[in-house]
Every structure is written in structure tokens, then in C-alpha cells.
Amino acid sequence: MKILVINCGSSSLKFQVINTVTNDCLAKGLCERIGIDGAITYQNLVKKLDKVKETPAIEDHRKAISLVLEKLTDPETGVVKDLSEIDAVGHRIVHGGERFTDSVIINEEVIKGIQEVSPLAPLHNPANLTGIRACREVMPKTPMVAVFDTAFHQTMPAKAFMYALPLHYYRDLKVRRYGFHGTSHKFVSEELAKYMGKDPQDLKMIICHLGNGASVSAVKYGQCIDTSMGLTPLAGLVMGTRCGDVDPAIVDYIESRENLTPSQLDEIMNKESGVYGLSNKLSSDFRDLWDARENGDRNAALALDVWAYRVAKYIGAYAAAMNGVDVIAFTAGIGENDAKSRRLVYQYLGYLGVDIDESVNDMTHGKIAELSTPVSRVRVFVFPTNEELAIAKDTERLVKTLNGSYYENLTK
Ligand code: AMP
Question: What is the dihedral of CA 144, 194, 366, 377, to 10 degrees?
């Protein structure tokens, strides 16, 4: 199948066309500054054409989708002859609340459901819905699937997802841990088990998704039992610009001392904290931080140390939660590419019996590799994530169940 994968933000729209037979990405791109002025970047990967950037006016998401479809069907730069070659569209949806525990075929009821959980992700879910509506207008006959960032984590038991707050905040406001990056944690845990020739049912896995946004999950016998992000993606690890876990009383203390509103501090915790904040706003990019550290910058050194220590503590917590761990996986931008940052993390893991081949670690950038030696009690891998492919595969799985009944399904 040829699946169009859409990841819609409030003023942006990322897209890929994926062939689910070969798992190849045929074309990809990004519409930006939607509703402001507009820009589209597009690349045909089949013909190996260079990335092109144009700046047409993009007044809304509907226009963005039309432009994307024009590019995909263009006789010179396109990857399909006409739109009927696109078998389905997979939409990335940030928050599925407690309602969506798996991907679903999109119909009116699903749209309503996504709307209902929007208060939990007020910046993201409405933007995701805009993408769905725009796509349905432009390609009304094409089946669409919603793939949720939260769904994989819905198997967490209550003892892992409940916060110790008055119970009615959970009952009435649905305040609980949801977790994010679920598509990535699911993809890496399932595909890595396959790669190892094992059944996920036989493995206790810790997946470290270490990118600009970062999270760790404990996957026991194929099911997520805990994860580091919470009600929102601000919790857990130290990230590029997000603070991760802090003492909740800090919020009131800083707001009153610095005369900040809750939304101002929220912005600071999301966009000016993490390794960026710790490095005194030097950079959120780990390449810059390592360069600075190696040139004697003590703030950059501290930022990386705080980051790694937090990852190591979560690994320890999840090894305890699962009463052991068989496999640890590093994935996403830093996990896949940054050997020095991986070393900062695994140097804490000797007590688990982790033994790493340093030369394999040094050589591993953006590809599958086993870092652990044959004597290691825990197997440690670098395993590249591919969230778009995971969305395309899930879309294919669900569309195959339709058996031509898409129109009936639409009106349910
Ligand atoms: P992601 O959010 O998964 O795309 O990860 C982005 C982050 O990965 C960047 O901000 C960098 O900090 C980091 N990164 C990407 N490539 C490299 C690399 N070759 N070496 C070190 N860090 C990298």
C-alpha cells in the first residue's frame, strides 16, 4: 500500500508517502508558516531529487494539503500518477486520553472523541483535527486512520499512572500519567524483539527515546507498564528545552519571586529549560554542547551530566519496576547518533551487569547495532526509530480490516 502520513501542527504540516511493501519513504516534506505567509519543502526520494523549497501563500491547512497533493501527483516531481494511488492516510494524533488504546479508522465518532480529549492537549489535538478535516475535504474517498502518541501506554497499571493527588482530580479532570512517544516505544520494542529473534512476551525491555523531546518506557512482556512523561510531555527526563521532573512547589516559588504568570512559567519550563537552560542558553543541540564541553565550558558539561544522570535513574527505576531487565534500547536523534552521550548513560549501569564494547559504541551512528558484549547480563542496542513508518504500518493494518466497507464506517 501507499500511505500518506500526516503530522499536523498549529502552523505546520509534515508529510511522508510510505510504501508499506518495501517500507521505503517515497517522498517527504513540510508545509510551514500556515496562516502566516507560507513555505513548502518537498523531496522526491524515488528519483533522488534535491529538496526544493517554495514560498506560496498557504492561508490554511486545506490549502496546505492541496499543495502537498499537487506535489505528490506532479508529472515531474510526483511519486503517484493520481490520488487514487494513495490507499490511505495515517494521521499522528498527540493525545488519545483514556479513550483510545489503539489506532482507529477515522469516522465522525472518532473525530468527536479526539475533540473531547482536546483539553488535555490544547495546542496539539485541535491542530491534528484541522489536518484530518482538511484531508477529508480534499480526498473524501480515501480511508484515514488516527494513530495516537498515548495509545501504547494505556496498558500501564493504575499504580503507575496515578498521581498522589485528591482522587477527584483524576475522576473529574482526568489528571493522570498518559505518556507520549508511544508510536516510537511500540515500534522499537516490537521491531527490536523481532530483530533479536525473540517473542516480546519473553522480554523485559527499557526503551530510551532520547531526542529533543525524550522519554523512557518499561515494556514488560510486550506491554508498557510505565513511562517517564506524564499528563503532558513536560515530565520525566531532562530534554532539549523542557525541564522534565521538578519539585512541584518550585512553580509557586518562582512565580511569586519573579512575578510570573502560570503561563509564562509554563513557557519557560517548555522552551527555555532542559539542557538549553542548564547550559545558560548555549544550545539545545547535543553536538554544540559536546563541542563546548570539550572546550572547557562548565555549564555545557553540567547540562550533559544532569541529562545523563536522569536517564540512568529512570533506567534503574524501571529495572526495579520489572524486577529485572533483559534489553535496553537507545533510539531517536541522540540515542541513535551520539556515542558520547550514550556512554555518559551506560557508565552508570555496571550494577546491572551491563558490559559494552566501546569500539562498537563509537562506530554506531543512525543504524542498528548491539553495543553489549557476549558477557553482558543485559543486551544493549541502538535501534533507530521510525515513527512515520510505524504510523503507515498501523494505518495499513486497520485499512485491511475494512473490506470495502469504508463508507459504512464513515457514517457510524
Ligand atoms: P530528534 O528530536 O529525535 O530529532 O533529535 C534531535 C536531537 O538529536 C538534536 O537536537 C541533537 O541534539 C541530537 N543529534 C542529532 N544528530 C546528532 C549527532 N550526530 N550527534 C549528536 N547529537 C545528535
Answer: 140
From the CA of 41, how far away is ligand 1's center (Å)? 21
Atom 11 of ligand 1, residue of closest alpha carbon: 285
Is 199 considered catalytic here?
no
Tens digits of pLDDT across the chain (412 residues): 999 999 998 888 999 999 999 999 999 999 999 999 999 999 999 998 899 999 999 999 999 999 999 999 999 999 999 999 999 999 999 999 999 999 999 999 999 999 999 998 888 899 999 999 999 998 999 999 999 999 999 999 999 999 999 999 999 999 999 999 999 999 999 999 999 999 999 999 999 999 999 999 999 999 999 999 999 999 999 999 999 999 999 999 999 999 999 999 999 999 999 999 999 999 999 999 999 999 999 999 999 999 999 999 999 999 999 999 999 999 999 999 999 999 999 999 999 999 999 999 999 999 999 999 999 999 999 999 999 999 999 999 999 998 766 655 554 4
Other beta carbons within 10 angstroms of residue 172's beta carbon come to 9
Tell me which of 238, 241, 285 to substitute to probe ligand 1's pocket, judged by most ligand atoms within 8 Å of the beta carbon: 285
The verdict on the CB of residue 276 being under 6 Å from ligand 1 is: no
Q: Residue 339: how many CA atoms within 13 Å on its side-chain side?
A: 15
From 24, 60, 149, 252, active-site residue: 149
State how far the Cα of 69 lies from the Cα of 90, in Å rounded to an integer: 15
